[in-house]
């Protein structure tokens, strides 16, 4: 596995320059680790919460050591912002990306519904003990009533989180067009061809599926943005395209195996222990992916901690990742979905790497009608 960097001009807010990922040879692979639903900062005011963050860090470190990926995707719900009582969510974001950053591996992120969710007041705080004393992360805000008013119970916006992420040289996260806001994390990255470095061998699309500060949807505007961008970047549909967003679309519900039942061919996976919690509405993105973009090979989502299956849907595959973090609901064993791309012949493989080092659910995606 190898990684190359090339400079390129990118049109977009506060993103005048980015580095393009690339294959290092015609027969080399490009490996991606997906970390989904880490939920850093959960129960931040308790002893339990920081311990879970340490456990999540261990999972990521184990996966990175074993797989040695070329790239990492943070697939939303990096944080449980609704449990973070002061405006210091960026501290937890930095903790979440540290395992990847410490190994000098580039990454990109897309937002989930919990990343900027409003603080939820615990009911027990209104009992005899009252609201606990909160220590500001910024010492300049720690004294005085006016300063404390600025300290307590303020959320951190998507834009502020992205600013923190994008300041790192290894981060490839980008602001999407302002016309799509409050949806922020909408952008495309390319993996450059080895033979033709100025041409992409694959395109990675990141789409904000909402939630938290606004509804859990991919809007019609986002769908049109994807259609226009993909048509411009890949007019012949020759280049394979891979899509990442957090909350499954309603199409996932249509093809889902019956919850609690075995996952049967042609689907592949190991846990199927809950119903799909989909987006609130469908505003055109799936029609575009399935009917107009034959180049799209697969969509990868998180959100459901008790699902890790991949199933075919029309011309593409719909896949869950694997619950990576110890924060969030459920106690199923943690892991990460791994993707491996090969330029020649063009191939997309995937499997689940567990915290204990084992793997399962290996698939080779050539088209939705064929699985090896």
Automatic annotation (TrEMBL):
UniProt xrefs under Gene3D superfamilies: 3.60.21.10
Cellular component, GO, one term: cytoplasm
SUPFAM superfamilies (alphabetical): Metallo-dependent phosphatases
Location of the Calcineurin-like phosphoesterase domain: 30-305
GO molecular function: hydrolase activity, acting on ester bonds
PANTHER family: METALLOPHOSPHOESTERASE DOMAIN-CONTAINING PROTEIN, PHOSPHATASE DCR2-RELATED-RELATED
Listed name of the protein: Calcineurin-like phosphoesterase domain-containing protein
Species for this entry: Taxus chinensis (Chinese yew)
């Amino acid at each position: 596995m190898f990684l190359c960097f090339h400079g390129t001009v990118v049109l977009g807010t506060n993103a005048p320059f980015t580095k393009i990922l690339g294959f290092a040879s015609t027969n080399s692979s490009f490996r991606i680790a997906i970390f989904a639903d880490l939920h850093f900062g959960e129960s931040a005011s308790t002893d339990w919460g920081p311990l879970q963050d340490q456990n999540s860090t261990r999972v990521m470190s184990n996966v990175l050591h074993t797989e040695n990926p070329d790239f990492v995707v943070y697939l939303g719900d990096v944080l449980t912002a609704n449990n973070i009582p002061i405006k210091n969510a960026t501290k937890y974001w930095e903790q979440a990306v540290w395992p990847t950053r410490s190994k000098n591996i580039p990454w990109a992120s897309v937002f989930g519904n919990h990343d900027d969710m409003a603080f939820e007041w615990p009911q027990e705080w209104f009992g005899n003990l009252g609201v606990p004393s909160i220590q500001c992360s910024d010492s300049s805000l720690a004294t005085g009533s006016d300063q404390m008013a600025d300290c307590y119970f303020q959320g951190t916006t998507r834009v502020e989180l992205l600013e923190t992420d994008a300041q790192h040289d290894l981060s490839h996260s980008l602001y999407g067009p302002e016309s799509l806001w409050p949806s922020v994390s909408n952008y495309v990255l390319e993996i450059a061809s080895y033979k033709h470095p100025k041409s992409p061998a694959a395109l990675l699309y990141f789409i904000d599926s909402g939630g938290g500060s606004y509804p859990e949807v991919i809007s019609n505007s986002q769908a049109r943005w994807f259609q226009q961008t993909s048509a411009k970047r890949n007019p012949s549909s020759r280049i394979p395209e891979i899509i990442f967003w957090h909350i499954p679309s309603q199409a996932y519900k249509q093809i889902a195996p019956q919850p609690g039942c075995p996952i049967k061919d042609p689907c592949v996976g190991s846990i199927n222990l809950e119903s799909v919690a989909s987006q609130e509405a469908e505003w055109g993105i799936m029609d575009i992916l399935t009917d107009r973009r034959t180049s799209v090979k697969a969509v990868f989502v998180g959100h459901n901690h008790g699902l890790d299956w991949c199933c075919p849907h029309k011309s593409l595959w719909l896949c869950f990742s694997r619950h990576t973090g110890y924060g969030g609901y459920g106690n199923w064993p943690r892991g990460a979905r791994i993707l491996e791309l090969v330029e020649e012949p063009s191939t997309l493989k995937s499997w689940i790497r567990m915290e204990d080092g084992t793997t399962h659910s290996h698939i080779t995606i050539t088209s939705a009608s064929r699985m090896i």
